[in-house]
Specification:
UPF0213_domain, GIY-YIG endonuclease, GIY-YIG nuclease family protein, GIY-YIG_endonuc_sf, GIY-YIG_endonuc, 3 strands
């Protein structure tokens, strides 16, 4: 596996899945990761609840920052998760 370029951002993304469930994850390429989930090559959760669409995504300068943001997102109640991606203000 090739190491990512230092200027390539990591993305936190939120998927809407069958049954109205949400799935959050991090990836270098959200579109490619979505298709991995869609074709059963992603997380176990998305094999049970296939994704319907990408609801939102936000870039972070490092994998660590994206993973920390993912923890914050996952700690929110379901109803507040889409708002996590809205600009502050």
């Amino acid at each position: 596996m090739q190491a990512p370029a230092p200027d390539r951002p990591w993305w936190l993304y939120l998927l809407e899945c069958e049954g109205g469930a949400y799935y959050a994850g991090v990836a270098l390429d959200v579109e490619a990761r979505f298709y991995q989930h869609l074709f059963g090559r992603g997380a176990k959760f998305t094999r049970a609840w296939p994704p319907l669409r990408v609801l939102a995504a936000r870039a972070y300068p490092s994998k660590g920052e994206a993973l920390r943001a993912e923890l914050c997102l996952k700690a929110l109640p379901r109803a507040r998760k889409p708002a996590f991606f809205e600009p502050p203000g």
